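Entry 0007
Protein: Phospholipid-transporting ATPase
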Amino acid sequence: ISEIKFLVTEILSNYSWYYFAMSVCESRSEERQSGGEQERYLQANNEEFNSMFGYPNNTIKTSKYNIFNFLPLNLFEQFQRLANAYFLVLLILQLIPQISSLAWYTTVIPLIVVLSITAAKDAIDDLKRHQNDNQVNNRSVLVLMNGRMEKKKWMNIQVGDIIKLENNQPVTADILLLSSSEPYSMTYIETAELDGETNLKVKQAIQVTSEMENDLNQLSAFNGEVRCDAPNNKLGRFTGVLTYKGKNYLLDLDKLLLRGCVIRNTDWCYGLVIYTGPDTKLMQNSGKTSFKRTHIDHLMNVLVLWIFLFLGCMCFILAIGHSIWESKRGYYFQDVLPWKDYVSSSFVSAILIFWSYFIILNTMVPISLYVSVEIIRLGNSFYINCDQKMFYAPKNTPAQACTTTLNEELGQVKYVFSDKTGTLTRNIMVFNKCSIHGRLYGAVYDRFGQKVEISEKTEKVSFSYNELADPKFSFYDKTLVDAVKRGDPWVHLFFRSLALCHTVMAEEKVEGELVYQAQSPDEGALVTAARNFGFVLRSRSPETITVVEMGKTIIYHLLAILDFSNVRKRMSVIVKTPDDRIMLFCKGADTILCQLLLPSCTPLRDVTMEHLDEFASEGLRTLVVAYRELDKSFFRAWFRKHSEICFCLEDRESKISSIYEEVEKDLMLLGATAIEDKLQDEVPQTIKTLNKAKIKIWVLTGDKQETAVNIAYACNLFEDEMDGLLYVEGKDDKTVEKELRSALYKMKPDCLLDSDPINSYLATKPKMPFRIPEEEPSGNYGLIIHGYSLACALEGNLELELLRAACMCKGVICCRMTPLQKAQVVELVKKYKKVVTLAIGDGANDVSMIKAAHIGVGISGQEGMQAVLNSDFTFSQFHYLQRLLLVHGRWSYNRMCKFLSYFFYKNFTFTLLHFWYSFYNGFSAQTVYDTWFITFYNLVYTCLPVLGLSLFDQDVNETWSLRFPELYEPGQLNLYFNKKEFLKCLVHGIYSSFVLFFIPMGTIFNSVRSDGKEISDYQSFSLIVQTSLLWVVTMQIVLETTYWTMINHLFTWGSLGFYFCILLFLYSDDGLCVILPNIFQFLGVAKNTLNVPQLWLSIVLSVVLCVLPALGYQFLKPLLWPLSVDKVFDTIHGLRHPLTYPVRSKLKMTGSRRSAYAFSHKQGFGPLITSGMFMKSKWPRKTIAHR
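Output (structure tokens):
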């Protein structure tokens, strides 16, 4: 009976679990289908249960197309171009025989070619994304299955799986840390692809799972249930509950390893998969892949619509003319030209003629325009790919145009959004200089006492006296090594303080090979410097720090760590020396520590401050180092108070800060350190050049504020001569609004008044979309805004105030930003400013802003390839950006504008001749040209000259382009091709067509040949008109060309010569007219017409009358309507030879600005060290866990 009861109970419990699971599953499935998953629920090692919720697998997808949707989706995108849709309509009309005056294949073949070329290019671009996706998805990882570890591909990982990760391995998905090889299941990770920071961070598993360690039996039996947040893009937030063995355990972000992180200094760790694939926080922040089109593409859509309306008006006028002519004159020709059966009246005939003219006049927008545009873009992309000056030899990496559709957009950029770490900087911290007891070390002088610039050829200091020195460390000032060797007490005390005052942890897996784990790369650099000069941090425990000083091992007893905080801007350690002295060593920001010094240090402080100013002028990150010897009785009393406050629950943080201040006073100054956060090559010069081109640069970084501001000064984004820096640091809407309004008032007081144009517009039309114009501030300012302040501004209807304030500043720093916030800033500028934006970055955390910007540039740097693979252009160094924009971008924009202006002009001239001719042919839709001339005009006769102009033309060479960045401005204002310039082309085309029709008509009117025969026949007139037309458009392109090459000459004059060859071949007595008389009907016209002087008179008069107005306009335009760049061109033309590009020297900054401090913004490893939880052998794992 007891066995039966047990069996029934077991069955009921199983059924209750099943029904519970089914109910939860149904509700979760409904939530996912509706797009509103409220929370995630899963169970470890239970694939059947988790699969019922419909969670996605771990596959990621950055591509746009697949084999099924490529054709419809790509065609849909291509037919968003109005011109392609226009040609499709035209094709349908040409299939109607009653109105078609041209064969249908004259449209369908070019249309298919254009669509096919574009589709092939898009397919190749997307194929690269597929290859990258496959590479990532097919990585392998160890998964716990049936009690043993098996390899599975990343894409097959499911929610609820337990996976094993090893050292230096990227994290597969967002996983809950269960256990690791380190004490207390701590795991060190690098988050460079998430927030751009390469300093290590620590994650720790909860105690109940850490006890499983790497026991596969326990891990296989683990059936904990997790309830947590639904997938979201909040990198800094994760909350959940783990239910295991009837107990609940709280989960937070410290327990979660995110996809994109890399395991460091940890042999192995196990984790439970929580979020996979598109649900991971990395992919939630990656943004959407959008179809990018240039501003010229958008303008072309508008212009095609204008042309379509203009074409409709012309066809309507000609149809009315035809109806009137048929009513007044047409009946006289009924016997010779009877109406077709389907034509019942002049009105019906006019309707048919309307569509006939619609087909004939379609060359106003020929499809060859789009073929030529794609060829031009492809050619300009080829120039970028082959530019040896953008080739980075150390990594063998060329620049690459990943897309060919955005070249001319590079010449119109107004805002550049840049990441900091890995983009502007190399993220390599180097101990550069120091000041010790009033003496400056780090500079190098020659034997004449002259300061020498440090280069690769400069001799390095030898650290052979120190067996534990880091061989990668470089220093050049021998006097500091000499001071260490001779035992200078101040120098020794200085480096002793650097070896003790930190929270760095040392690891020595191989004898003599030390690895330092630091929360901040700055701290790592300082400890490494102390190590090389002979004060080596060897190891530490919760109570001791072991330092090897000049070969002698000394153990200091660690009494307290006064850890860093944002408010304190300093940290201290209190140690007991072997000679029983109690010493406090402190390092921090000079603005703070100088207030804590003894009055007797004033002379030394003044000298040190001068050194700090010098360090700051070089853009170095500075720290002040001080010390104090504590009285034992004072320390005991202080330590007793400190211990009591540590257990206090109310207002604990402020009380701890107060107790720290009691001991951190009356300090003795030791000196200062200067660390160089190495910028990439030529970054300051590049930013200075881009600023001259009126390109505004905003730095969007996940790094801390002080670091970002320091880099902004170092790279010339901020300058000491600026009128001030404006800070937006509020944590609520009211504070942020107050700070923004204060910033606006400083820069432009009138913008807060109701009479301000933008404010008055918003008051009258609050919901109407509008663009914010450029505003001039009253001074030169920089803006620094924090990530949480930005969130308040974007969510609190303060985006306009934020944008207006930011756009008036010379430079903008946005710090502590999430990847999604970077994209939001870019979208904000795109929403309210009519400008072209460019985003540049090197990490996965930059992908969202790269996708959001009009142009995305990826730097192949230290943080993986995600940015590169999602970019439109890629290269290896930030300074290549100036060449990409000022040379390739400007040339591409200028060439495209010249091409469009000329192309529209020549086709307006070509097409509108039909309009004038219609008044002389009874509006019958007869063409003025031979059919074959119509076919060859855009395809052969005028194709190569305009391509030569568009691929090789340069108004100035690359040296001048870089020497005078002001030449870039016309592209930003879109001065060279816009609606106004289009109307000029139209007017010029109307005038030229008028001249080209009536001049030939006048020259042959009532004219005869030398033999007395009349020459005013249709075929002779047609030949004279088309020959005059080709001469006119050829001379026009000669005027437009400013840079002649052999290819230009060959294309221009060769095309004209080729026309005459074709003319003789097609229209001669022994040409194709004899072989195929039904197709080539102008028999003997070439020979007869080329001999008459009227032809050459017509050519000369037409060329003169058409070219003279263009010449006059080019001459008068800079005099009557000058542009700002005209003065620059005058300067260039006044110089006989191009100036060599200035020799690049390291830029110095003047002034007294200092770089605050070089600490990590986060609290360091202090609590971890004093807890002893990082120790492996001294503290048994389970004993400590229950203390």
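Curator remark: Residues 601 and 689 are 43 Å apart (CA to CA). The mean pLDDT is 83.
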